[in-house]
Specification:
There is one protein chain. The chain has helices at about 1-30, 60-70, 85-95, 110-120, 145-155, and strands spanning about 35-40, 50-55, 60, 105, 135-140, 160-165, 170-175, 180. Residues about 1-30 have low confidence and may be disordered. The protein contains five helices and eight strands; from the N terminus they run αβββααβαβαβββ. By secondary structure, it is an alpha+beta fold. The protein is about 40% helix and about 20% strand.
Amino acid sequence: MQTNLGRRGLLLGAGAAMAAVAAPAIVRAQPLPGVRRAVLHNLHTGDTFNDVFFANGRYVPDALAEAMRVLRDWRNGEEHPMDPRLFDTLHAINDRLDNNRPFQVISGYRSPRTNAMLHARSSGVADRSQHVLGKAMDVRIQGVSLRNLRNAAVDVQAGGVGYYPVSNFVHVDVARVRQWTGV
């Protein structure tokens, strides 16, 4: 009986030693604290962004500029500064979903002209859209249910969340916290 306890103790000790050796590799594999990344795929242009936009306590200007290019108005090519909090919101949503797949971007920035044209066609497009201000995106994630994406966005409490199950996207913005359902 004493022999079994000795073997068991030896096996437990060996397991603990192996875990201690493996632990540094596990720690290295996790993202550094305070580093935020966005992964975007614009469905209309095919442009992608996969980079760190926040590190060392501040936003990375070159990365934000590239992300803004990906989020330009695809109808006319106009670019506009996007509110960096929007990228923070996407990062927080990804954390909640434990996701590393890209956000598929249906709409990022919209020029006033584009927004007026869309508003004239549909009552579902706001006259004073947050897209025009660079504070909104319409997104989905392949392999993540739209309902789960919406719930994660609502949980983040960073701004507006519109749920459009028929059109297959979730609107996320960094204006006041609110939520609605569209088509």
